[in-house]
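Protein kinase domain-containing protein: structure, please.
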Amino acid sequence: MELDVPPLPDGSGSPNPQGDADLLAGNPRYEKIRYLNRGAFGFVVLAHDKQCNDRVALKFIERGPEHINKYVEREIVNHMKLRHPHIIGLREVFLTSTHLVLSMEYAPGGDLFRYVAARRGLPEDEARWFFQQLMIAVDYCHRMGVSSRDIKLENTLVDGSPRPLIKLADFGFSKDANQHSAPTSRVGTPAYLAPEVITNQPGQVYDGKKGDIWSCGVLLYILVTDRYPFRRPGDDAMKPNQKLNVMLQRILRADYSFPADKPLSDGVRDLISRILVQDPDARPTLQGIFTHPWFVEGLNPAALQFNDSIVRESLANQPSPEVLNEVRAIVQEAAKPVAAPAAPQTAPQQPAIPRPDESNRGAYDSLDELVRGAAAESDSFDMR
Ligand SMILES: Nc1ncnc2c1ncn2[C@@H]1O[C@H](COP(=O)(O)OP(=O)(O)O)[C@@H](O)[C@H]1O
Ligand SMILES: [Mg+2]
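Here you go.
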């Protein structure tokens, strides 16, 4: 298997240093069922929502200025605007004594990374089925003004249907073109980063939508090959920094090939090779992808009009300014230094100093720093 799969959570383990027992202590609405997984910024727990008598996924983000920054607010505000069958629903946001919590629709199939790794890549027909859904989700986001900037298998969730439906998740790096200026930050996950995002310099802007399309091309390549396009088998012998550096250099050259031992149709090769080109303007638009012969196979033509009415409906039902203000107030509260536990103190307590640049959404000024700072190529991070 080419994809490195972290050990499956055993259902009881938790990265929460306080232990999970009191994560939801005293919460009248939610009851923990089990730990699901963690991402670069939070861990996710399956819980029972007593109010709706339904299962939900709760994403826990630690409180305090070192964890809560502008990306957390954007994640919530942008996610709240998106209501679509192929986007995980965000239900509510609340605080516990230690965490900011996002209550989300639960995807029982887990994420597409594990799904694909367990099957060692997907047959093309199945890959197409997932990719069609993902493109419809991305088209909706882009029409709503939101670019994800972190599209990857780990952020694409699978529901529990016999013919699985996918649900795009994790808007932790998203950008709303209507709310914020054009993207300038080098954020995302190294293996999926577009060349222009890697080379972006302070003061320059790039088109987040075209960067998303590149990431979708990387994702499609992985679906059908069970490999990362810009990694080579020999890379594993390298030190992590060198491994990341050679991968980024290959991305900049769009230097990849199709594995000789995987039979792939000309159609999927053609689509991937049109997307993974250095010049963002030379990549197909979503409309271009929607009319590609490999993409349209087996697709009900009505599916391409699917988003028209959903976009109309979403635009007519955006969260009210009051709701948005309420959410911002919760995030601001979460960003305050967490009260120290009541313990006898021998020395006067130092006030906590906000150090957003040292948060776990770390900042990087150069490619070199990026290489030194990256934890793993498949982890998300911020490279401003
Ligand atoms: N709604 C959900 N249903 C099921 N699993 C989920 C859900 N949300 C997240 N997960 C799991 O938790 C992981 C981390 O969640 P994510 O929102 O991506 O956090 P991060 O911002 O830390 O990357 C995902 O890759 C997925 O495996
Ligand atoms: Mg994630």
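Notes: The pocket of adenosine-5'-diphosphate (ligand 1) is lined by residues 36-42, 44, 57, 59, 88, 104-107, 110-111, 154-155, 157, 169-170, 172, 380 (CB under 6 Å).
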